[in-house]
Amino acid sequence: MEALLQQIEGYKAEMQAATISDAAALEQFRIKYLGTKGLVKAVMGEMKQVPADQKKSFGQILNDFKLFAEARFEELEASLGNTHPETRNSQTDVTLSSSKGRNPNLDYSLPGEPIPVGTRHPLSLVRNEIVSIFKRLGFAIAEGPEIEDDWHNFGAMNLPEDHPARDMQDTFYINKPTESNGATWLLRTHTSSVQARVMETQKPPIRVICPGRVYRNETVSARAHCFFHQVEGLYVDEQVSFADLKQTLYFFVQEMFGKNVKVRFRPSYFPFTEPSAEMDISCLICGGDGCNICKHSGWVEILGSGMVHPNVLENFGIDSNKYTGFAFGMGVERITQLKYQVNDLRLYSQNDIRFLKQFTGVV
Ligand code: DAH
Fold it and tell me: What is the pLDDT of residues 254-309, one digit of tens each?
């Protein structure tokens, strides 16, 4: 037994003295001492020859020896650890190999590779803000399809087939096989179509906000696009008045743009409302003094609105003598342009990361 003890001490001294300069040397160390045919295993095998009465104390010694070898291995592994894996060469080095199954070629203490995180699109940020303001007033969110039939987009909104106001919105028609009801299909030109969808399924009181994408057959330029985004609002109940419309939209503007912004209503025309009005706000860029954005008028238009036309209510079986309502529709791009001074509509859909990342955390 004496000889074995001496052998163990010898191996320990050898291990202690060992130095390694690279992963290959570390691996050799591991194979020599800790491998399946290594010295630790070999010494353990000697246990068979140990007399029964000495087995216990010897077992302890052998166990300590094993722990010593493992600890020394980890020490040497750590001494390599400060080297960046990429500076250690040779692909053959990269094997899963150590007493703990860890790869000695990897530095586990290095920080991870950053994963780039996307940001919200400015239009989403502004849409969310618009929606959250109206939610605070008790409006619910409603959505409808982007591929719409003629009835929901036009007919129900008081624009019969020969109505000249259809020309106000250049429409993309769709070659979809005509259904049994003879419907013509199109890409919705405004989110007013969602008003129709809501009134079809709900009875007053109705208070909804409808955000969504709309399409028009326009040549793409800095000022026009073939698709853009709107938020529609609809409020139908007993005794809803134009004063309610004004107060609601005034609240919205103050929340969205701040208390100092002025608003004005101009009479206008929309087939689905009577009376109708467009709302302007004092120009945020020049404060009302006049600039390019407001075309030197000091005012910019931000939405269309009005009292829901009785024909629209009656189209859905809502008694227009009992109920009245107001509606409005605004362009999300326009509001975003005013808030962030974006002057080219094309930027919103070009996906230029330098443009998009400017809006991180701004809202
Ligand atoms: N649908 C109109 C458009 O796209 C906007 C609009 C005007 C919506 C007046 C309304 C409204 O609900 O009452 O130009």
Answer: 999 999 999 999 999 999 999 999 999 999 888 888 888 888 999 999 999 999 99
Q: Pick the residue whose CA is nearest to atom 3 on ligand 1.
A: 190
Closest atom of ligand 1 to 330 CA is 5
Task: Verify whether ligand 1 is closer than 6 Å to residue 191 (CB atom).
Answer: no
Residues 327 and 221 in one domain: yes
Domain that holds residue 296: 123-359
1-39 burial, b if ≥16 CB within 10 A, otherwise e?
A: eeebeeebeebeeebeebebebbeebbebbebbbbeebb
Distance from the alpha carbon of residue 277 to the mean position of ligand 1, in angstroms: 10
Mutate to test the pocket of ligand 1, among 217, 248, 328 (most ligand atoms within 8 A of CB): 328
Report the atom number in ligand 1 closest to the C-alpha of 195: 12
Whether ligand 1 lies within 6 angstroms of the CB of 332 is answered as no
Q: What is d(CA 330, CA 350) in angstroms, rounded to the nearest whole number?
A: 22
- Same domain for 337 and 228: yes
Co-location of 44 and 157 in the same domain: no
What averages of pLDDT result for each successive group of 10 residues across the chain (363 residues)?
88 91 90 92 87 87 92 88 48 47 81 85 96 98 96 94 79 78 88 98 97 95 93 98 98 95 96 97 88 89 97 98 98 93 91 88 50
Neighbours of 298 (CB within 10 A): 16
